[in-house]
Every structure is written in C-alpha cells, then in structure tokens.
C-alpha cells in the first residue's frame, strides 16, 4: 500500500488546470477525492473519468469565498468518508493589472478567493483534524508569493498572505501532528490567464507560456508531499520551468 492510498483529500479548484491534474494523479494513487469548484459540469465529468479508471471521487459545487459553502464541503467529506486527511486549497484567480487602473472589483475578488477562500478552508477542516490529532493542509501559493513585479501587486499580496497563513498554521498546529505544505508553482499552462482583463498584461503572460509546465508537474509535487511518512512534513516546494528566470 502506498502512503496516498485511502486518504480522504478535499481539493478546491478541481475543475481545471492544476486542480484537475491533481485530482487525477491522487485518485490514481488511491486517494478518496472530494472535488470542489463552481463549474459543476466539469466536476461531474472529472468524477466520471476518475471512476472509469477505478478511482473514488465525490464533488460539490462550491464557491470558496463563501464560508458556509466551505463548511458544507467539509461536511460532505465527513458524511461520505468519515474523515478528512488532506485539504488542498488550490482554487485561485489572477486578474493582474496596474494599481492605477483601479480594478477594485478584481482586487476584492482576488482577496476573497485567494486569501479568504484559503482561510475558510482551513477553518472548515481544523476542528476535525485537531480532534483526530492528524491531518495535512496544502496551500497553493506561487513564486509570486516570494517576489513581486509590476502588475502583480494584489495577486502577489494574496500569495504572500497564503505563505504567511500557512507558516503560522504550521507553528500553531505542529503539536497536534498537523502537517502543512506550501506549493509555489512558476509558470504553468492552465486557464488562469483567462482571468486577466488587461489585454496588454494578458498578452505578456501568454507570450511567456511557451516555457510553461504542464499542470501534472505541480500535481506530482502535491502527491510527493502527501506521500511522505506521517513524521515528515514537506513545508514548501517551489516548482518552476527550468528556463524561467523570475
Ligand atoms: P485555473 O484557472 O486552470 O484553475 C483555477 C481553479 O480555481 C478552477 O478550477 C476554478 O474553478 C477555481 N476557482 C476560481 N474561483 C473559484 C471560487 N470562487 N470558488 C471555487 N473555485 C474557484 O488555474 P490554475 O490551475 O493555474 O490555478 C490553480 C492555483 O495555482 C491557483 O491558486 C493559482 O493562483 C496557482 N498558481 C498558478 C500558476 C500558473 O502559472 N498557472 C502559477 C502559480 C500559482 P471554477 O471556475 O469552476 O470555480
């Protein structure tokens, strides 16, 4: 039996990109998946694909920025499988822009999804993990959680926040045997670029995608963190395309 086999994994942002690839990789290793995102049709298709390969998955349409929906997601996992071993907070959006453009709705949305969504996820699983004195919270940040450039102000800010939140969680819950992992991808070819409304910025990002990784590269990093023995916590992984400088 491998170390992923049988683990109950809640995964947000499972309808595309890194989340979808992670769902497939973990399900193939025997994880029991709880898939979440807003696009229910995509989740349904993914659940069917996983089941056709012999895997196990349930899904629930969930907006991570609505706290009650994250609580319901944790409830689904407990009602279905009786436990939660891993939460992967992966859902995120990246509408990059210059601050002077005052795209205030996009600022708000990024903070709601990328920061509050992560907090609501942690809040939803922590009582159960503390009670069991075991669990693993994996938060997908970014290399932009380490460095900042023009147009990344709010997005980077949310990813710096995700790293800060995860490190504090690690310190607070180490004595409860709860592991934390920060995953920091570099460029990955996904739908994330679609959330950019500044056409010039979007073109620049699209132009950099020729060296981008496939989502599976990040999925394997997540699987590696989960598959470590219980006493080993992989606290952070940065995965960049070899040719990416920043
Ligand atoms: P995608 O756009 O392909 O996937 C984003 C996922 O998040 C989708 O499944 C989307 O589903 C979901 N999502 C967005 N908003 C919400 C919401 N309010 N509630 C629930 N789910 C939501 O992009 P990626 O796979 O690239 O992104 C995954 C993570 O990786 C993000 O956190 C991103 O910041 C991070 N990342 C990505 C990098 C890259 O280069 N691609 C680099 C560094 C980090 P739906 O629309 O159905 O709700």
Automatic annotation (TrEMBL):
Spell out the Pfam families in the cross-references: adh_short
The GO terms this record gives for MF are: oxidoreductase activity, acting on the CH-OH group of donors, NAD or NADP as acceptor
Gene3D superfamilies attached to this UniProt entry? NAD(P)-binding Rossmann-like Domain
Supply the alphabetized keyword list: Oxidoreductase
Q: Which PROSITE patterns match?
A: ADH_SHORT
Q: Which InterPro entries does the UniProt entry name for this protein?
A: NAD(P)-bd_dom_sf, Sc_DH/Rdtase_CS, SDR_fam
Instruction: Name the domain of life.
Output: Bacteria
Checking PANTHER family in the record gives: DEHYDROGENASE/REDUCTASE SDR FAMILY MEMBER 11, DEHYDROGENASE_REDUCTASE SDR FAMILY MEMBER 11
Q: Which family does it belong to?
A: Belongs to the short-chain dehydrogenases/reductases (SDR) family.
Name the chain's protein.
Answer: Oxidoreductase
